[in-house]
Amino acid sequence: MKVISTKDAVGCILCHDITQIIKGHTKGPVFRKGHIVTEEDIPVLLRVGKENLYVWEPKEGMLHEDEGAEILRQFCQGGSRKEAAFEGEKKCFRYMSASRASEGKIELTAEMDGLFKVDKKALYEVNSQGEMMIATRHGNTEVRKGDKLAGMRVIPLVISREKMDKAGDAIRQENGGKPILSLLPFVPKRVAVITTGSEVYKGRIKDTFTPVLEEKLGHYPVTIISRTVCDDDPQMVTDAIRGALEMGADLVLCTGGMSVDPDDRTPLAIRNSGAKIVIYGAPVLPGAMFLLSYMEGGQAVMGLPGCVMYAERTIFDLVLPRVLADDPVTKEEIATLGEGGLCLNCPVCTYPNCGFGK
Predict the structure, then answer these.
(1) What pathway or pathways are given for this protein in its record (predicted)?
(2) In terms of Cα–Cα distance, which of 301, 352, 279, 355 is closest to 116?
């Protein structure tokens, strides 16, 4: 940047905010950093005591902060300005809208309900470079349309193109140049609920588990196609699972029978259905006895422990959004849930605005 007489600054880009103070009335910026000075601005600038200004001086190999912020946006979303679709003051790409660059900063907002994903290693590579930053909400979390997803900015007023290129090279080395962020829309699914337990099957108690699932599933684009009650006979449960799949179920939820008691045979029944078990037992409380499996055709079959019925939040709330977004869950990913996997049972539940599962 360079210092220039205010009278000669028409067409120049301000490198700093211009603040006006009127006693008892106002204190704030008259012009923001990045503003292009016009002829009409000169008297205003002189009235606030600015005889000289710091203005942007283009140099070979250097980028203005807003240009650098646009490159950070591309790291996050992928695509260029030409590929992004402008809607008023926003540009939408990959189900995320980006604000226009201002003072070297851009924010991303969800344009639909879905599962927010973050490439943590690639994000680390960018933030390790210095002079630039990207801050996001936690990945693998459910978001709703209008939720803020990320903010990014270049720290100094100008940054070298070489430094931005270095960050891009680091991302390509880490993940082949894929976008750091993604938003996977929820996919409409057909769900079957299978309730197990002789006490429910024989009418000794009322099924209070299914209504809980119906309430949770009601927030997603799903249709419950069947509700079946089975005895503790594992073959009956296996037959119910296979029957649900034959009806076209994309997701089968088996409730109860998940502990180590002799009569709790749901894990065996799921295994006998031909499902491939991803995990039986997870480092999450509530939800340690949770089971996740997939059929060869990709349909998910879950065994839900009793805590899902009475606890406000459990591992089911962490895994369900991923399954509904067709984002396969691995054993290794479940293992990482130990840190943050302890629900604190707060008097007023604020999930997902808490540390559970993150």
Answers:
(1) Cofactor biosynthesis; molybdopterin biosynthesis
(2) 352
